[in-house]
Amino acid sequence: MSVKLTIGSQVISFPTSGTDQNWAPAVVQFAQAVADQLAAIASQFDISPRVQILTSDTNSGIDISGCSFPSGSVRSFIFSYAIYRTNGVALDTLAEDGTVSAVFNTITSTWTLQHEFEGKRQSDGSPYHTFSMSGDQLLLSTVQIGGAYDGALSTISYNAKTNLVSDI
Length: 168
Description:
Helix content is about 10%, strand content about 50%. It contains one helix and ten strands; from the N terminus they run ββαββββββββ.
């Protein structure tokens, strides 16, 4: 006896008993189908949702935890984030949502970043938060908001999706 399992568009007759003669091929077929489906969802360099506390009001080039994109394996990435920083004063509290898109140029061996966001800007129109790369590491810089900065409630929440150089 077997049960029908559908993974993606593949239907697998999976034996209900380990003594069935078709058990081993069905297990292999099942594992391959699951691996194919998971490969379409994430690469090994994708970053699952995380939260990092921004303990300091002013930051210059701090590492965003886990955001290293090895240029030998990653061709491009899209980093999605939300930043919340506060000093307890409503007018000074910053809430920002945005994306950083990046592509690695193999000729110049550099990352090119494009930063887009929704949120408050400084009086001169420049952003309170900027991103850069140091080698393959994504960095964040922040402008001081002043006051009694709350480093416990100030965070960046983020995730990233990568496109790989090859499927190895």
